[in-house]
Automatic annotation (TrEMBL):
GO terms for molecular function: hydrolase activity, acting on ester bonds. Signal peptide: none annotated. Residues 21-258 form the GSCFA domain. Pfam families: GSCFA. InterPro entries: GSCFA, SGNH_hydro_sf. This is GSCFA family protein. Transmembrane segments: none annotated.
C-alpha cells in the first residue's frame, strides 16, 4: 500500500561528481543543502554573501561578482553600532568599517574566481516579497533592522523574477559557458507575509523558474524541494518547532531525493566511505586508551589517507 504521494524527480543529464565545482545560493534551504555537500566533502561553496531570499538581490550580487566591481564606502552604512551593506546578509556586518569593506571585497574576489570555474550553480529562491529602500529606490537583500518607515514592501511580478533569473544565467555564462543550473524553491513558508501572501509569493517563483527554463532548457533543471515538502511530507512531524521550517528528518529526506537524481551513481561508494569516516570521527569511546580503540583509529587514518591520496582537496577536521 502507498501511504504518500510520491513526487517524481527527473534524473539530471549533467550529474555532479567529486570533480564538480558547485555553488549554492539563496535562502536558508540552500544552507541546508550546502551542509550536506560539505559533509560528503564535495567541492562546494554556499552563500558567500549570506542568505539571500529574492532573485533581484541575487542578480545584483552575481553581476557585481562577475564584473569584479568592488564594494566602496558608498555601499555601506552605520547602524546600531555596526557597519552594514544592503546587498548582503547581517551575518557579515562588522563594527570596524575597514575590516568590513576588506571582508566584503575578499569574498567578492573569491566568488569571482569560483564563478569562472563552476560546473553547477544551485539557486534556491525563498520569496517574491521584497523591501525597497525609499531613499535609493533600490531593492535590498536585508533590512538590517533599519526602521520599517524607510522601506516600501512589494511583490515581485513573475516577469521581474524571470528577468533576474535569465540575467543570472547570462551573466555566469558570459564568463563560464559550461556552467549548469539547478533551480529550486525553498520549502520554508514565509508566514510573516501572510498565509495567502506566501502562496502567492511561491507561485510567482515557480512560474518564473519554469518560464526561465523554457528559454534556457539545456543547462537548467528544476528540483521540486517545495513540492516534496508540501505534498510528499505533508505531516507536521516533518517540521521544526516553529511548524514552518523542515526538521532534520525532512532535510535528510529531501537530500536523498536530490543526490539519488543529481549526483553520479559512480560516486555513491565514495560517499558511503566518507559517511563512515565522518561517523568514526564523531565516535567518543568510553576507554580511549584500549588496544581495540587504537586499532580503530589506525584503520580510520588509513581510510582517510586512501581517500586523500586520490582526492587531495578532501580534508577531514
Amino acid at each position: 500500500m502507498q501511504f504518500t504521494t510520491k513526487i517524481p524527480v527527473q534524473k539530471s543529464s549533467f550529474p555532479i561528481d567529486y570533480d564538480s565545482k558547485i555553488m549554492l545560493l539563496g535562502s536558508c534551504f540552500a544552507d541546508n543543502m550546502g551542509e550536506k555537500f560539505q559533509y560528503f566533502k564535495f567541492q562546494a561553496t554556499t552563500n558567500p554573501f549570506g542568505i539571500i531570499f529574492n532573485a533581484v538581490s541575487l542578480e545584483k550580487l552575481i553581476r557585481r561578482a562577475v564584473e569584479n566591481r568592488m564594494f566602496t564606502e558608498n555601499d555601506i552604512f552605520f547602524h546600531n553600532e555596526l557597519w552594514h551593506c544592503y546587498e548582503v546578509h547581517s551575518e557579515l556586518s562588522n563594527p570596524d568599517k575597514e575590516i568590513f569593506l576588506s571582508n566584503l571585497n575578499s569574498i567578492l574576489e573569491s566568488t569571482h574566481r569560483h564563478i569562472a570555474s563552476l560546473t553547477h550553480c544551485i539557486i534556491t529562491l525563498g520569496t517574491s516579497w521584497v523591501y525597497r529602500n525609499i531613499e535609493t529606490n533600490e531593492i535590498v537583500a536585508n533590512c538590517h533592522k533599519v526602521p520599517q518607515k524607510q522601506f516600501t514592501k512589494e511583490l515581485l511580478s513573475i516577469e521581474q523574477t524571470e528577468k533576474s533569473l535569465q540575467n543570472i544565467v547570462s551573466l555566469i555564462h558570459s564568463v563560464n559557458p559550461n556552467c549548469n543550473f539547478v533551480f529550486t524553491v525553498s520549502p520554508v513558508r514565509h508566514i510573516k507575509d501572510g498565509f495567502t501572501e506566501n502562496t502567492l509569493s511561491k507561485s510567482h517563483l515557480i512560474a518564473a523558474i519554469h518560464k526561465t527554463i523554457i528559454h534556457h532548457p539545456s543547462p537548467i533543471t528544476y528540483f521540486p524541494a517545495y513540492e516534496i515538502m508540501i505534498d510528499e511530507l505533508r505531516d507536521y512531524r516533518f517540521y521544526a518547532e516553529d511548524m514552518l521550517h523542515p526538521n532534520q528528518t525532512a532535510i535528510d529526506y529531501i537530500w536523498i531525493q536530490f543526490f539519488e537524481n543529481y549526483i553520479s551513481e559512480s560516486e555513491f561508494g565514495l560517499m558511503n566511505e566518507i559517511c563512515s569516516i565522518q561517523k568514526g570521527l564523531k565516535h567518543r569511546p568510553f576507554n580511549p586508551n584500549t588496544e581495540s580503540h587504537q586499532k580503530f583509529l589506525n584503520q580510520l587514518d588509513l581510510k582517510i589517507q586512501t581517500i586523500q591520496n586520490q582526492y587531495p582537496f578532501i580534508k577531514f577536521c
